[in-house]
User: What shape does this take?
Amino acid sequence: MIKIENVSKSFGSHDVLHDISTEIGKGDVVAIIGPSGSGKSTLLRCINLLEVPTKGKIMIDGRDITDPKADVMSIRQKIGMVFQHFHLFPHMSVLDNLTYAPVKVKGISKEAAEAKAKELLARVGLSDKAASFPSKLSGGQKQRVAIARSLAMEPEIMLFDEPTSALDPEMVKEVLDVMKGLADTGMTMAIVTHEMNFAREVADRICFLDGGRLVEDAPPSQFFTNPQSQRAKQFLEKML
Ligand code: ADP
Ligand code: MG
Assistant: This one.
């Protein structure tokens, strides 16, 4: 589904990603972990072209999205992204947050969009919040709305950049549970996270980045019990 080939990214003279190659198969869940500043967000953002790689190629479903002629809008429609800080539309109700893009961008009727939105709110456990405004929600509720809003566009891939890092500890589980449910439906997912237990339990593979390099790319059973690199060992000692 996603093929990353020799991707490097620099900001001016600052080399942030060095020659990254990996693949994410359809229905796979990959956790991207590593220290702060190691390039996790940049790598994730390259997958939906919020950043353009300086070198290398990214293929999505067999299409080269790094080709300058690629249709960025149609690629982005296939890929949902959830951020640490929710990014909900503050002046819209929860329901309108979910229906806005499907109606505007996809041209779906308002009725159909609302029916779908209600189904998604039920799925994230927020049926009773359709008429609420984001400012009235807890962090965990906001993040569940953000996930439902992404799903309303019917993406084939979901990207998560530290979706629980801004949450109070008691709200982390409700968001991780929604993500776990999504993984169970067979969604292809790439998740930047510091939640090691979640990564171990839900991910098919762990990509460990350090200093912009993909230092390890292994199943959790291997990564957590027998990391190959000194850097990953040191990182895990601090995290676990
Ligand atoms: P992580 O998500 O692992 O913390 P990032 O991908 O956000 O790391 O950042 C990796 C490095 O790239 C950092 O040194 C950061 O300062 C730098 N960086 C990220 N985005 C930009 C940008 N838009 N312009 C310049 N430098 C950036
Ligand atoms: Mg980051």
Remarks:
- Residues 26 and 90 are 34 Å apart (CA to CA).
- Residues 11, 14, 16, 34, 36-42 surround adenosine-5'-diphosphate (ligand 1) (CB under 6 Å).
